[in-house]
Amino acid sequence: MKKIILIMLAISLLSTLLTGCGDSDYQNPDVLIDEMGKKIYIAYIDKDAEAIKELLSPKIQNRKKTDKEIEDFFSIIEGNIVSFKELRGSAGGGKIRDGEYVERTGSGSVHEITTDTGKKYMIGFVVCLKNVENPDEEGINYINIQQEEDDSDSMQLLGEIGEPG
């Protein structure tokens, strides 16, 4: 039994040492995207325009129409939000140069946001996690709200902030 415990401890220690990236600032991109989804959801509930704006890339923050888009964004969902089912998100493609990402993108969504009116919505977003050549594109570049259509699996786009692509 002691031998098995020692082997398990050795494997655990070895795996801990070998999985260290060497970059103490490294954050898992999928976790970052999930966190962004949570922040968008909370900001929507709180109607916190500054919290939304902080998540946006400088490129989108500095557009003239962004403040108006954020203002309109908060009036889309009918009723009070009571829950959401799940967060989804992942890092997608990108460009690699010399073994390192120079551009990295991803997307996420908050699914089945339910209100006290019984309606269901989804908030989706597109994010640039890294762009060495254009750092002003780093951050969320697009957020949208869609509503589930009754008796259908399709969604209807109701509003958006930013530029989809």
Strand coverage percent: 35-45%
Number of distinct beta strands = 6
Tell me the name of the CATH class: Alpha Beta
Run of helices and strands: HHHHHEEEEEE
Unreliable parts: 13-23
Q: Fraction of residues in helices?
A: 25-40%
Q: Please tell me the overall pLDDT.
A: 86
Note the quaternary state here. single chain
Number of helices: 5
Describe what this molecule looks like in 3D.
With 165 residues, this protein is an alpha+beta fold. The chain has one domain: Nuclear Transport Factor 2, Chain: A. It is built from five helices and six strands, in the order αααααββββββ. Strands 1, 2, 3, 4, 5 and 6 form a six-stranded antiparallel beta sheet that branches. A hairpin with a 2-residue loop joins β2 and β3. α2 packs antiparallel against α3. The chain is globular. The relative contact order is 0.17. About 7% of the residues have low confidence.
Characteristics:
Nuclear Transport Factor 2, Chain: A; 6-stranded antiparallel β-sheet; alpha+beta; 37% strand; globular
Secondary structure layout plus pairing:
Layout: H1 2-19, H2 29-46, H3 49-55, H4 58-61, H5 66-73, E1 81-83, E2 86-97, E3 100-115, E4 120-131, E5 139-148, E6 155-162
Antiparallel strand pairs: 1-3, 2-3, 3-4, 4-5, 5-6
Helix pairs in contact: 2-3
